[in-house]
Amino acid sequence: MKLLSTLVLSAALAVSAFAQKSYTIKFAHVVASATPKGKAADFFAKRLEEITNGQIKVQVFPSAQLYDDDRVFMAMKMDNVQMAAPSFSKFTPLAPAFQLFDLPFIFRDTAHLHKVLDGEVGEAIKQKIEDKGFVALDYWDAGFKQFSSSKKPLIVPDDAKGQKFRIMSSKVLEEQTRAVGGNPQVLPFSEVYSALQQGVVDAAENPLSNFYNSKFHEVQSSLTISDHGYLGYLVVVSDKFWKSLPDDLKAKVKQAMKEATQFEREESAKDEAILLAKVEEYAKNTGKLQITKLTPAQKAEWQKVMSTIYPKFYDVIGKDLIEKTMNTK
Ligand code: LMR
After folding, report:
1. Does some domain include residue 187?
2. Helix crossing, 110-117 with 120-130: angle to 10°?
3. Domain total for the chain?
4. Angstrom distance (rounded) from CA 169 to CA 318
5. Does residue 320 lie in a domain region?
6. What pLDDT sits at residue 70?
7. pLDDT below 50 — which residues of the chain?
8. Is residue 8 domain-resident?
9. pTM as predicted
10. Which residue's alpha carbon is nearest to atom 3 within ligand 1?
11. d(CA 69, CA 66)
12. Which of 144, 205, 314, 327 is most buried, taking the most CB atoms under 10 A from its CB?
């Protein structure tokens, strides 16, 4: 009897210790806290702490304070970081099919993009990174990429000839740059401002949220609203950490993420017009930034040259995934 009650007591103690076990998530990203990704990471942290009554704490490290995107995957494998939201290009060395999202002019607009990400194609791409031992949660937006330069405004494809472009590590971006006669240079995001300032590179491609919040407008003399490609993110979790979480907390992480994703997409959509107005105001006040919005005919010229690279990626991405993306209505 005594033995039985001791056993019951120790089992109860073990259960309560397990129920109270607390967890910490380090969430590393490379952009400013004021970007949609930065705001959504903070939103997620607050919300998850709330709904778990503090059982899961989330520490957000913006601006590559902890790791840049190229090293964050290794850090996650070692469980030094539990969450990150790298842009699609950063996944491509691990899972080359992510290059699908880098293809120039693959997405017609945000509605098309969301249909693809939230549908069969998005799921198939998530699986590719799950196969590499990461847990894939939701897709987040940054926005369509715009060209900028300090050498020559990029209005027609010929303007790119001989310019050095900072690109993220992605074969598609390399080929896209070469297709217009530019010289691609892979650099981590944390080095872009100084590389542009010191003329290590002449040109770049960024969504307005990164262009403005990282103050690239201060070190570029022209901005072209080209919408030629898309930059988005996938939020991933360390497999080791995920496996350590009980099921009820896993469900809460998913719930907080779902709310953060909705918030992130709304912020991103709202930001587009606000940020364009801000760069326009900067251009007007300083006279130091020439802004050009490409006409549909000018866009078509870039598209014509850049889309010649698609066949080079049929094997690595899968022609079926490219076609499914293009045919998504
Ligand atoms: C970049 O390197 O340009 C982007 O991936 C940065 C980001 O996370 O938006």
Report:
1. yes
2. 50
3. 1
4. 20
5. yes
6. 82
7. 1, 13, 17
8. no
9. 0.92
10. 189
11. 10
12. 205
Q: Which of 27, 29, 30 maximizes ligand 1 atoms within 8 Å of its Cβ, making it the mutation to test the pocket?
A: 30
> Positive or negative CA dihedral for 91, 95, 100, 102?
positive
Token look-up 């590389």 returns 195
Strands 134-149 and 222-238: antiparallel
Q: Which two tokens stand for residue 211?
A: 């262009």
Can you tell me the distance from the alpha carbon of 204 to that of 96, in angstroms, rounded to the nearest whole number?
A: 22
The amino acid present at 23, given as its one-letter code, is: Y
Q: How remote is the CA of residue 155 from the centroid of ligand 1, in Å?
A: 23
Q: Is the CB of 168 under 6 A from ligand 1?
A: yes
What counts of helices (H) and strands (E) characterise the chain? 13, 9
- Assess: ipTM above 0.90: yes
Q: Which domain holds residue 169?
A: 22-327
Q: Is 9 exposed, middle or buried (0-12, 13-18, 19+ CB in 10 A)?
A: exposed
Please check whether residue 304 lies inside any domain of the structure: yes
Sequence-distant (6+) residues with CB within 8 A of 113 are 107, 141, 230, 232
Cβ-based burial of 200 (10 A; exposed 0-12, middle 13-18, buried ≥19): middle
Euclidean distance between the first and final Cα of the chain, in Å? 69
Q: Please give the helix or strand (H or E) that residue 59 lies within, else none.
A: strand 56-61
